[in-house]
Amino acid sequence: MRDIVRGQVFLPGDDGFEQAAAPWAVGVRQQVVAVAEAADADDVAALVRYARRAGLTVTAQPSGHGASGDVDGMILLRTARLDEVAVDPVERVVRAGAGTRWGQVLAATGKHGLAGLAGSSPAVSVAGFVTGGGLSWFGRKHGWAADSVRALEIVDAGGERVRVTARSDADLFWALRGGGGDYGIITSVELDLYEVPGLYGGRIAWPAARTGEVFEAFLAITADAPRELSLWLNRMAPPPPAPATVGIDVTFLGEADAAEELLARLAAIGGSLSDSRGPMNVADLGAIAAEPIDPSPMLARTELLTELPVDALAGAELAPLLNLQVRHLGGALAEERPDGGAGGALVEPYLLYLLGLRLPHLAEAVRGKQAALVAQLGEVVSGRKPYTFLAPGESAAQAFPAEAAARLARIKRERDPGGVVRANFPIHETGGAQRG
Ligand SMILES: Cc1cc2nc3c(=O)[nH]c(=O)nc-3n(C[C@H](O)[C@H](O)[C@H](O)COP(=O)(O)OP(=O)(O)OC[C@H]3O[C@@H](n4cnc5c(N)ncnc54)[C@H](O)[C@@H]3O)c2cc1C
Predict the structure, then answer these.
(1) Which of 11, 128, 133, 394 suits a disulfide with 390, CB 3.0-4.6 Å?
(2) Where would I find the H helices in 38-185?
(3) Beta strand pairing status for 350-357 and 323-328?
(4) Distance in Å, CA 260 to ligand 1 centroid
(5) Distance CA 194, CA 148 (A)
(6) What is the mean pLDDT of residues 310-337?
(7) Where do the structural domains in the chain lie, given as residue ranges?
(8) Euclidean distance between CA atoms 116 and 138, whole angstroms
């Protein structure tokens, strides 16, 4: 492998191997046979051809935010050196290398008053985000991030470099946009950018005693929010003696006055502990949720909800969980787009995210609490999960309706019969999200 790949290769036993093989998601074990850092796109192609000849499998992992642990015996491909970010403000498109993170991309697009469809964390890679669909702060207005992909440059499972567009290869273009990383190794992505007429955002928090009022306001505002407005509710339960709080994270594509009018119900609650809301730059989007940048043992479970069970969510005892988050979805996300990718229409209006820590003494209790809360919600849990929110032990089948899952399985079979390329949550022959 070292004769073929120009970037650095780490093998078990080498100095630095353990560190090179560790994902961002602390506590997820990765028993890979090698870690290869590609020098450029040709290097990726050389690695894939090598793996094909050697009967090995390559799995790309720019950051390890989405690590599933399902990588034993594979070659882990690091893409940090594919770090190109080229903005064309006239064509409103950014070309982002497979190693780039959202923070880098937004810093570059923000200078032109343009935004890509980023999510909450600036440390997540653009390639990993869009292959899984990508739920953005601006998804209610513009849909899945994957549906804003214009073109991808990939190395296919045969080791050839190919540019994939809707015209060049409709099936593969559809699968790569939301179906996960199973159909080739992306080397760069071209993404639509959107004009930002003004951006308002931030977080407001109250003492936990206000939880009921905040849920009621959240429900009322999200019932008829315009697509420019996105609200996420957070119940924060840090370990004592830190106080429990309840908060709202918000973005609005528009002016502050209009945002504050739409959010008048929040102002009426009073007694807030902190409030960072105001006009902001696109480049600072990651500051709203302020998620950890450094590797973290976050252990989350995500569910999609067909409606918001306020009493159950507002009243639930959270310990040992640290955070219960509800994201408002809907808008463009709920619409079927004829030119869209594998995610299709995401009809559930709310996403529930239950977060604890994957620490040896806590993980079992965290999983137990997550399961108990979900069971208590019963029928409002749809059973589908967005691909980018799948957690170790879950399956790609949970992310797609049966028809899309079958199409993805067919494409995988046709394009990579030998299984040379592998996603964190691979596509298998079974398919379809099911309730329960
Ligand atoms: C703190 C935090 C916040 C998050 N916020 C959001 C959010 O707001 N919205 C959202 O939708 N998701 C969110 N996620 C989930 C995140 O988008 C996914 O885990 C995503 O897959 C991470 O991509 P990554 O490349 O950084 O991670 P990695 O674990 O490095 O990669 C994940 C997978 O992406 C695929 N992949 C990556 N690069 C390539 C490539 N070059 N070619 C082919 N396949 C590739 C591979 O299958 C890989 O296993 C969040 C996750 C965390 C931990």
Answers:
(1) 394
(2) 41-54, 102-110, 126-131, 139-142, 170-176
(3) antiparallel
(4) 33
(5) 10
(6) 97
(7) 199-389
(8) 9
